[in-house]
């Protein structure tokens, strides 16, 4: 069988490289949430697994996000994956010892179009999944200003992403038949073989879960899918005295998540913002927040798409996010504790699944919802081998 993807030359000629490692049933490349979800599912199926990660621990998108299990605002396959994933998240939180809680989401409406969008969603999904709130009820759940009303989405969950990835990896490492190779870059994959910077690994089945770095490891696959890197600016702010259990979404979120963005209300909002809020549309803002276990707020986000990005963050985007947050919370005393950029893979569809060689599948969530969906996606990928 010929493979169109050439192996990069590995360092196998050097004396320090260990010999070929005996096989596992499955090799997972990448220890972000997508790779870890595949490893968890493989363990549940009684398979032996080797996870290969280039860094000493996961530091990619999976620890840089809001930790929002945004289930209800998805549609189609993503909704089904999200529903399945939420149960796995809650079980893994208990088993591995990190925060995964059924807080739900409050979507705050501060314009008539936003209220209309939420009413359409409630009509479609029913009162169990979308609880419409009047202004007072919104205020009773989250400390925001200017709400005309809103909706509570009880199926959504919140996890602590900075704790989850390391805790799941540690839990996996305690399971029989699981091996991790940290600080081990994968240089190439082909049928039955994964070539790393430390030698070769062998397995009949390989899943490549390198997130946006798929474009560097398998550029032809990424190009075929039209993959771009989406860069998001994020803030961690200290807001003493605020308690916000649910994730909080706003009007800009309604332009983003498909169950809301397809409503007439959201389309009308976008039309009005084209004149009134070109700053939000230009920066592709999804203004939302979650509260960390330490009380700080994770605030975001902006979106910028390119195959290669400039290395410089734009301070005006952070200022825009801060201004929106001050306005939403009616709080001026917000101290920025951390700023960071997150990157995820972006393409036309929500999920990239490509068979790159017999027994080798590349998997990437290409719509910024990997925390919501990975634990639902992974079983379907393993089913496909
Ligand atoms: C700022 C931000 C906020 C987000 N918020 C949410 C949210 O609230 N809810 C939600 O559902 N989704 C959210 N997302 C999306 C979600 O975080 C991603 O979809 C998900 O984390 C992708 O997981 P991953 O495992 O594919 O990628 P990553 O977490 O990036 O992991 C990929 C791993 O592969 C490793 N790797 C790469 N190349 C190699 C190689 N050659 N050899 C070995 N290892 C390699 C990397 O080191 C990395 O650890 C957000 C994303 C960002 C950036």
From TrEMBL:
NCBIfam families: HpnW_proposed. It holds the Pfam family DAO. Belongs to the DadA oxidoreductase family. Its cofactor is FAD. This is TIGR03364 family FAD-dependent oxidoreductase. The keyword Flavoprotein applies. Residues 25-378 form the FAD dependent oxidoreductase domain. It comes from Pseudonocardia abyssalis.
């Amino acid at each position: 069988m010929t493979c169109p993807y050439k192996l990069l030359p590995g360092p196998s000629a050097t004396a320090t490289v260990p010999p070929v490692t005996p096989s596992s049933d499955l090799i997972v490349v990448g220890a972000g949430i997508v790779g870890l979800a595949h490893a968890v599912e493989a363990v549940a199926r009684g398979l032996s697994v080797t996870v290969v990660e280039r860094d000493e621990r996961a530091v990619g998108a999976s620890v840089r996000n809001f930790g929002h299990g945004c289930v209800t605002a998805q549609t189609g396959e993503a909704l089904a994956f999200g529903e399945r994933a939420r149960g796995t998240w809650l079980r893994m939180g208990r088993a591995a010892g990190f925060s995964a809680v059924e807080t739900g989401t409050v979507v705050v409406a501060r314009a008539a179009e936003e209220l209309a969008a939420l009413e359409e969603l409630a009509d479609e999904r029913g009162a169990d999944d979308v609880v419409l709130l009047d202004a007072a009820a919104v205020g009773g759940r989250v400390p925001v200003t200017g709400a005309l009303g809103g909706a509570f989405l009880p199926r959504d969950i919140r996890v602590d992403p900075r704790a989850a990835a390391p805790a799941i990896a540690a839990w996996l490492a305690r399971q029989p038949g699981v091996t991790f190779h940290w600080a081990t870059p994968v240089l190439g994959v082909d049928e039955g073989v994964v070539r790393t910077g430390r030698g070769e690994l062998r397995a009949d089945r390989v899943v490549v879960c390198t997130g946006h770095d798929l474009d560097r490891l398998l550029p032809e696959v990424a190009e075929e899918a039209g993959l771009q890197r989406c860069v998001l600016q994020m803030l961690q702010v200290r807001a003493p005295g605020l308690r916000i259990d649910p994730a909080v979404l706003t009007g800009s979120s309604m332009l983003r998540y498909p169950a809301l963005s397809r409503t007439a209300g959201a389309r009308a909002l976008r039309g009005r913002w084209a004149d009134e809020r070109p700053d939000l549309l230009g920066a592709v803002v999804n203004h939302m927040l979650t509260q960390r276990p330490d009380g700080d707020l994770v605030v975001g986000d902006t979106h910028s798409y390119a195959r290669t990005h400039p290395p410089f963050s734009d301070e005006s985007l952070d200022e825009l996010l801060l201004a929106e947050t001050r306005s939403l919370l009616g709080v001026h005393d917000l101290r920025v504790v951390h700023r960071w950029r997150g990157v995820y893979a972006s393409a036309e569809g929500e999920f990239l699944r490509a068979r790159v060689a017999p027994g080798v599948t590349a998997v990437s969530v290409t719509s910024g919802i990997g925390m919501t969906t990975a634990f639902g996606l992974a079983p379907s990928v393993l089913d496909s081998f």
